[in-house]
Amino acid sequence: MKNTPKRRPHRNRRGLFLGAVIGAVVGYFAGRALGNPAMGIVLGMVAGSALLYRVNPGRGTDPDAAAPRGRTQSAWRARGTCHPHGARDKIGFVPSWQEQPPLPATWQRCDHRILPLWWERLCAQAGEQSAALYAAGLFTEDRRRPIAQWFNPAFNAALLVAPEASPEWPVQRFGIFYAPPDTGVVRIHSAPHEWNPRQPRTSPTEKEAFLAAIAEAERFLQVEMDFV
Predict the structure, then answer these.
(1) Which has the closest alpha carbon to 24: 43, 50, 1?
(2) How far is CA 189 from CA 9, 14, 57, 176, 196, in A?
(3) pLDDT at residue 26, rounded to an integer
(4) Residue 110 pLDDT exceeds 60
(5) Pairing mode, if any, of strands 148-152 and 108-109?
(6) Beta strands per DSSP E along the chain
(7) Which pLDDT value is given to residue 84?
């Protein structure tokens, strides 16, 4: 004799909320007639939720109705594969780093040296003495590495990721600096991209902090270009 699979009871999450609302309204009026509206609301919410939670929501609205037995749609997405029946999931799983759009073509990566415009703008903005002390002398002598730098010749703007802490500090940090179109220098306030040189293998390492700072700088460029 062939054993028929046991039918799984419906789980209508929308009905759970809807039943609570409808039950509370009905329970209020029923409880009011009996002299205790508060108790009527509570009992109505419980009864309404329990009733509508088991109502079949229909194949189109049940998130797990189209999934193969034993696998929900969320399980298919977690495995990084396409759901065989769900049209919404046909593109499969896409890693978050691939979702970030590419930088505008006008921004060019140039890491060989710090551009002269940083020093020129700092001197014009705060004076030569203050510029020499800015970011532990980062722009006075081009010696700190690694750096990541972008330049936009169309707007005469630049963005820089570079170590901003003094070399003798026990904790080092990457800063993000922005030179807006034509004039000025601004330090971008971001998460502290730090590492400990005395513990080079402890996370975050220098490489991890550097890559995190680059990712944040590229996100900043994406947003900034919407306003330029």
Answers:
(1) 43
(2) 52, 42, 48, 8, 20
(3) 83
(4) yes
(5) antiparallel
(6) 108-109, 148-152, 157-163, 172-179, 186-195
(7) 42
Q: Could you tell me if 165 and 136 are in contact, meaning their C-beta atoms sit under 8 angstroms apart?
A: yes
**What are the tokens at 49?**
């939720």
Cα 139 from Cα 145, distance rounded (Å): 12
Residue 103, pLDDT score: 57
Quick: pLDDT tens for 23-36.
Answer: 778 877 887 788 78
The CA distance from 151 to 188, in Å, is 16
Q: Which two tokens stand for residue 24?
A: 């509370």
Residue 193, burial from CB neighbour count under 10 angstroms (0-12, 13-18, 19+): buried
Which amino acid does the sequence have at 204? Answer: P
User: Would you call the peptide bond into 84 cis, given omega within 30 degrees of 0 as the criterion?
Assistant: no
DSSP 137: G
Amino acid at 132: A
The terminus-to-terminus CA distance of the chain in angstroms comes to 74
What whole-number distance in Å separates Cα of residue 73 and Cα of residue 65? 9
Cα–Cα nearest to 172, from 201, 143, 133, 210: 210
Q: Count the Cβ atoms, other than its own, within 10 Å of residue 14.
A: 13
Closest CA to 163 of 183, 185, 136, 184: 136
